[in-house]
Amino acid sequence: MDENTLVPLNATISLNNHDALSSSSSPSRHTKNDDDNNISATTTSFGPILALHSYDAPSTLAAVNAFSPFSMNATLLVSPLPHHYANNIVSSSAQDEEEQESSVMILDGYDDVQLQSSPVQNDLLPREPAVVVTEKTTSMITLDDNETARTSSPALPSNEEEDTLFTAHDFNITIPKVLSPSALKEYENCPQSFFFQYILKLKQPTNTALAKGSMCHSALEQFLGLEYPIAI
Amino acid sequence: LTVLHNLYRKVWSQHRTTDIYKGLFDSVAAEREWGMAGLACLSRYYQLEPHVAAPNPVQRETWVRATLAENVTVRGIVDRLDLVRDTGDDNDDDPAAAATAVGAGRDRKKGDVVLRLMDYKTGKAPDLKYSPAMNAKIEREAWDQLVLYSLLLRESKNTPIRFLRLIYLGGDIDDDDAVATVWNKRLEQGDMDDMKAKILRLWAEIVEKLSSDDPFRAFSGCSRSFCYCHQCRTKFAPDAVWQQRPCPPAVGRYERKT
Predict the structure, then answer these.
(1) For the segment A88-128, what is each residue's pLDDT rounded down to a tens digit?
(2) Does the predicted interface ipTM exceed a cut of 0.85?
(3) Which residues contact A68 (CB under 8 A, 6 or more apart)?
(4) Which of A212, A214, A226 is most worth mutating to test chain B (most B CB atoms within 10 A of its CB)?
(5) Mutation site, B24, B147, B152, B194, interface A, largest A CB count within 10 A
(6) Using CA of residue A101, residue A107, residue A113, residue A117, what is the dihedral sign?
(7) CB-CB: which of A131, A193, A231 is closest to B103?
(8) Closest alpha carbon to B94 in B1, B194, B191, B181
(9) What is the pLDDT of residues A37-92, one digit of tens each?
């Protein structure tokens, strides 16, 4: 394989009726052992999780398209040498068997891998990998298939341990020194909701609409974070 | 677009198991549906600004903080500031549009290079199907946040904002007709002056209520059924906080068991 060649390793993942993942890809010659020579993944009630399992050298750089339950395709872009970065993270489905075998990355399970993000370049052609394999130090998520998604409820402080209700004596009231536009808008819409959230600090649990907004903002922030040539 | 989608997936992958978000969905199917709706929002964004040369941000996700009066400080995060050219044509839907074509080979109209403050909304644009007075109120409220940010930039850094832009990225994934909606507005100094007066008034109200004998009952709730006040009131002892009479049953996941 030409050393300048980026090797996209594509794995198509699909959920079956049992929420278990099946996946397919070519085996790699750099597998840890014969049993680990496939890209594999599993799923939890949160959805499928992929993790890098092993790699042939610490200097190996890889760009991994982020993987989440609403993406049924996971694509690895692998550069065999440290200075060869992913030059396009667009997914590719047509992969040459031999090229896949030449790649240096292995996906398998949740074993001891730390992922470190780095920014995608402004011109849509990342010069650095989206994810860099640094060292095998930490474990990825290890939820059982049957584990419930609702392990805890965020936000609103609970006083149900003692089955008592809040009273005024449970809080110290102070006049805020700084407020946000959101706080002021909340006060305008509902003074009591403002009082609960911004004075008593009883924050409203997040919801899907807020989560979607936050994630879109983060994605756009990274997408625009960049170095557009200013040519006015 | 693929890059943008993958960034969304990456961001969610990093957050989905955190305490804030891990209990958000009952099932993988619900999470996937939510994720697809987010991707659809970004697709609509990309339809608006598909090319590298189109958006021209000079700042993004920038903290801004200003003291508007003694003991009155407001701070927040500005989504994006663009450099645009003011063509002076207010009859155009987007009088600054020509300047966003920098580098794209399109003709550039002459005019001052100015700043445009932009905000993304992942919901639908407000439906202006009501009376003219009500529509004007809806529009004014939609612009309030951007006017406030412009005020903060003016008061803190003397940054002159000329235009405002709101991008509504649409609703749910199953809404085939959903499109991104762009609202543009030329900002006037008077808008910011009015906003400043309003903020000072609201702040004074808040301080007055907090300084009262019973601040817990000084802040009244609202009649909007979805508002958090209805849920949170049930966490308090009777009459500890302002109560609606008659008190409606709490709704939602924090409904208190009796």
Answers:
(1) 222 222 233 333 322 223 232 323 333 333 333 333 333 33
(2) no
(3) A47, B9, B12, B13, B16, B35
(4) A212
(5) B24
(6) positive
(7) A231
(8) B181
(9) 333 333 322 223 333 333 332 322 233 333 444 443 333 333 332 322 222 222 22
Which residues lie below 8 Å from residue B236, measured CB to CB, with a gap of 6+?
Answer: A165, A166, A167, B216
pLDDT one-digit tens code per residue, B184-238? 999 999 999 999 999 999 999 999 999 999 999 999 999 988 899 999 999 999 8
Over residues B9-61, the pLDDT tens digits come to 888 888 888 888 888 888 888 888 888 888 888 888 888 776 555 556 777 77
The reply to whether omega before B246 is within 30° of 0 (cis) is yes
Beta bridge partners of A9: A76
Write out chain B residues lying below 8 Å of A141, CB-based: 17
Q: What is the pTM of this model?
A: 0.61
| Inter-chain touch B222–A193, beta carbons under 8 Å | yes
Annotate B179-229 with DSSP letters as a single string.
--EEEEEE--HHHHHHHHHHHHHHHHHHHHHHTSS-HHHHS---S-TT-HH
When scoring B16, B36, B107, B116 by the number of chain A Cβ atoms within 10 A, the one with the most, hence best to mutate, is B16
Nearest Cα of chain B lies from the Cα of A123 at a distance, in angstroms, of 6
In chain B, helix, strand, coil percent, each to 5? 40, 20, 40
Contacts of A215 in chain B (CB under 8 A): 8, 11-12, 15, 38
Tokens linked to B190:
């008077």
User: What are the structure tokens assigned to B232, written together?
Assistant: 């949170």
